[in-house]
Amino acid sequence: MVLFGLCSSVAGVILAVSEFLIAFSQGNDPWASVLLGSFGIALALLGPGSWSVDARRSGWKRIEIRPPDH
After folding, report:
1. Segment 12-64, tens digit of pLDDT
2. How many angstroms separate the CA atoms of 17 and 21, rounded?
3. In the prediction, which pLDDT does 70 show?
4. Which of 7, 48, 57, 69 lies at a 20 to 30 A Cα distance from 41?
5. Is the dihedral angle over the CA atoms 35, 40, 41, 46 positive or is it negative?
6. d(Cα 51, Cα 61) in Å, to the nearest integer?
């Protein structure tokens, strides 16, 4: 899903949850899973890239901050 940019936010959340469950359920060193889980959170917050299927399907949202009118 991430490779094609399809539901990338959902894939990031699934990655984060699964890696954090792996990190805290096993007795091994959890830092590799914590690192991968934080990558999943970053992916979920960043969203799809400009060449992804999600961007083509729903379009980019542009936020313009205008100066206040006095």
Report:
1. 899 999 999 998 898 778 899 999 999 999 988 887 777 777 777 776 667 78
2. 6
3. 67
4. 57
5. positive
6. 14
CA distance linking residue 19 with residue 13, whole number of Å: 10
Residue 20's CB is within 10 A of a number of other CB atoms, namely 18
DSSP secondary structure string for all residues of 4-62? TTSSHHHHHHHHHHHHHHHHHHSSS--HHHHHHHHHHHHHHHH---TTSHHHHHH----
Rounded to whole angstroms, the Cα distance separating 39 from 3 reads 15
- Which residues touch 10 (CB under 8 Å, ≥6 apart)? 1, 44
- Which residue carries 């960043």 as its tokens? 46
